[in-house]
Amino acid sequence: MKLKPVLIAVAALMALPAMAQNLTVVNFGGANGAAQKKAYFEPFEKAGGAKIVPVEYNGEQAKIKAMVEAKKVTWDVVEVESPDLSRGCDEGLFEKLDWKKIGNKADFQKAAVHACGVGTFVWSTVMAYDGDKLKKAPTTWADFWDVKKYPGKRGMRKGARYNLEFALMADGVKPADVYKVLATKDGAERAFKKLTELKPNIQWWEAGAQPPQFLVAGDVVMTTAYNGRIDAAQREGKNLKITWTGGIYDLDYWVMPKGTPNKDAALKFIAAASSANAQAEYAKNISYGPTNTKALGKLDAKVLGQLPTSAANSKSALQFGIGFWADQGEALEKRFSAWAAQ
Amino acid sequence: MMMAGGTLDLATQLRRAERRRKQRAVALTLPLLAFLVVFFLVPLASLLVRAVENPEVADALPRTGQALAGWDRNSPPDPAAYAAVIADLSAIEDTAQAGVLARRLNSEVPGGRSLVMNTYRILHPDEEEAADAEGEGEGEAQPDIRSLTPEQVRTRLIETDPRWEELPYWQAIAKNSSRWTPDYLLAAVDLRRTPQGDIVKVPADEAAFSDILGRTFQMSAVVTFFCLLLAYPLAYWLSTLPERKANVLLILVLLPFWTSVLVRIAAWIVLLQNNGLVNRFLMWIGLTDTPIPLLFNRVGVIIAMVHILLPFAILPLYSVMKSVPPNYLRAAISLGSAPFSAFVRVYLPQTYPGVAAGGLLVFITSIGYYVTPALLGGAGDQMLSYYVAQYTNVEVNWGMACALGGVLLTATLVLYSIYRKVSKAELSLG
Questions:
Q1: 20 to 30 Å CA-CA from A262: which of B9, B31, B34, B99?
Q2: Contacts of B57 by beta carbon, 8 Å cutoff, 6+ apart
Q3: Pairing of strands A240-255, A77-81
Q4: What is the largest CA-CA distance in chain B?
Q5: What is the b/e burial string over B60-87, where b = at least 16 CB atoms within 10 angstroms of the residue's CB?
């Protein structure tokens, strides 16, 4: 009769893995990953949802494609950038979402609602500089290009994306017309020509952590940067400043790779992470804008003033042209490689 | 009789023993062979196949391919081709297939993606959207495009998206209707096929890869040169030291070798940045007034790569120098040769195998370098692997990535065979 408790214990142990389910959530790590951990992962675990296994990646869609093609999906929820969302959705890499289980579509920004994904935050590629070193703040992209007024190197992301838009704005194109101009042959020519002007003064960056480091080290006087990275440096006490004029904002999305074995738990996680409360908590930890409009009411003016979504900051901003880059991206990136070699 | 039977037995036994020994030898190497086949030869072969495989258009648009078979590719395509496109796109049941087709056409003609996906969505309205539309009532419902005559289909399709009138999209469909294509490989060497099938150079502002391939080999050659230049005296000095001292110093050579490449790159960033140690030292001794840009350009990449690859040059050189008897040099000098010419004429030739092995090892390793140039180089300092990664991960155009990989593999094999011809000597990479 002593066997019975043992048997029960064994049975309980065997049932344990099924009960304490693991959910693999993939994000870009860094300051953003830390904010997600605090605002999304920990509360979800505490509420008994599932144990979150965070994984970092660099946006490589090849990994998702390989998993889905091999039908061995080990990632349950993945944060992806907007071009990858529409492309991956078209190519069947992601599950279609049941929006009824996520929330009211009307509560979200229009761009955040997608058949395969839920926008999780708004981020922006902006101009940044060191407030201690530049006495006169640069206010436009024309200033960024003006090496006489602001001598020194400029940090820019290695690649065509964003840089061509900035070049056109520096050349006097209005933000609203940027993609219209860039879509023409002459417009692309004009953007590359403008970029050539600045070429000797460009110091290229690859990873999002590099631009604030360039500024702090004094290697560049101005740089393009992701606004959250500058925010993280400010929180560490560095006097880095952002010029929001002509910034390019974009959304990151939660998706579920097609064939994830934990579909229900994954959907529950996405729903929890898209709630107004969770998104407000996230925005307090990193200055990326919530997509759930109800989260805005839960934030004070100081936090709001740092978000790309605030009225003052988004006034002359440009929404990233997802459709444009989905069509023209490969050709323009190749042209950029040829341009860089000249 | 008995004797003959005995010899026969002995011979069989001998043969059997021989066979068993052979089997054992094969069995011992079998795991390695299996490993090589599974993890090296098969992936390599599938990489090369992917570089010429082109199933996307042929699978998704079979009728269109047929309808365009006799087309001269210059005049506007026949209305039958328009009807075939509609029939093909309607027949696609899985969005994924349409997405794959869209990606393939887009990498041929920018804009192909949205053209295919927009048309596909019109033919396959989402259930939810369809329900919405029904709710609004079907004011002036147009007849189903599938029930129209080819001429009407053509008009209607051009109405919905005027790009259907443009030739490049049709030329891309016609060109890619066969299951195999040389296009990726041609693009990897800056060539392309015209719609008529002639092979021409791509325009100068799109020609990137021959530059990149040349840059890859040039940078590898420079790295190899500096590695040998630094490694040779060091290995020589090590080989003249007593065993115990040499071993301690070899550990110093190996220590960085065992450290993560990323850590060493980060260390170089700290050292080489504008107010880093190197620049501050140069300014302190008065060599320069303003910091010299050593980072995020070619100089930084070369410095870090030489540092990372130096052990690959030192170790083969050291092992070869260790086996050169010192007596030869002494004999040459005692027979009246000047020390320098004795070194050049007697010692140096005996270390050639080490120079060759070290040089080749460094060169071949650096050809595939990716992380170091990505983090320490500018936009114009990236090597071919960077673009392989770009096409694999960012563009998700695996055909192009495989073609670039194939070109790199071929170029390396050609270089190696030239090297074998020139050096003649059998080479051991030990």
A1: B99
A2: B65, B101, B104, B105, B173, B176, B177
A3: antiparallel
A4: 109
A5: bbebbbebbeebeeeeebebbbbbbbbb
Check if the beta carbon of residue B60 is closer than 8 Å to that of residue B101. Answer: yes
Q: B210 — contact with chain A (CB < 8 Å)?
A: no
The upper half-sphere exposure of residue A127, i.e. CA atoms within 13 Å in the direction of its Cβ, equals: 25
Residue pair B163/B169 in contact by the 8 Å Cβ criterion: yes
The CB-side HSE value for A47 (13 A sphere, CA atoms) comes to 13
- Percent of chain B predicted with pLDDT > 70: 92
How far, CA to CA in Å, does B388 sit from each of A87, B4, B398, B405?
A: 20, 69, 9, 7
d(CA A216, CA A211): 9
- The token pair at B354 is 């080490």
* Interface contact B393-A337, CB threshold 8 A: no
Cβ atoms of residues A259 and A246 within 8 Å:
no
- Count of C-beta atoms within a 10 Å radius of residue B1: 5
Answer positive or negative: Cα dihedral of B274, A124, A267, A62.
negative
Strands A154-157 and A289-290 come out as unpaired
Residue of A nearest to B190 (CA): A338
Name which residue leads in pLDDT, B132 or B57: B57
Nearest CA in chain A to B187: A334
- What is the bridge-based pairing of β-strands A118-130 and A202-205? unpaired
Does B33 reach chain A within 8 Å, measured CB to CB?
no
3-state secondary structure of B290: coil
Interface membership of B208 toward A (CB under 8 Å): yes
Backbone angles phi, psi at A60, to 5 degrees: -70, 110
- The amino acid sitting at B75 is S
The pTM score is: 0.85
Residue A58: list chain B partners with CB under 8 A.
Answer: 393
Could you tell me which residues are beta bridge partners of residue A118? A113, A254
Buried b (16+ CB within 10 A) or exposed e, A81-97: bbbbbbbbbbbbbbbeb
Instruction: Detail the DSSP E strand segments found in chain A.
Output: 22-27, 51-56, 77-81, 118-130, 154-157, 202-205, 222-226, 240-255, 289-290, 318-319
pLDDT beneath 50, residues of chain A: 1, 15-19
Q: Does B100 sit within 8 Å of A219, measured CB to CB? A: no
User: Which amino acid belongs to residue A135?
Assistant: K
CA distance A94 to chain B (A): 10
In this complex, is the C-beta atom of B279 within 8 Å of any C-beta atom belonging to chain A? no
Q: Which residues of B touch A329 (CB under 8 A)?
A: 395
Gap from A51 CA to chain B (nearest CA, Å) = 29
Of the candidates B102, B387, B396, which has its C-beta nearest A337's C-beta? Answer: B387
Q: Tell me if A330 and B96 make a contact (CB, 8 A cut-off).
A: no
Question: Is the minimum CB–CB distance between A57 and chain B shorter than 8 Å?
Answer: no
Q: Tell me what pLDDT residue B134 has.
A: 47
Terminal CA-to-CA distance of chain A, rounded, Å?
84
Residue B91: partners with Cβ closer than 8 Å, 6 or more residues away: none
Closest-approach residue (CA) in chain B for A159: B379
Q: Any chain A CB within 8 A of the CB of B385?
A: no
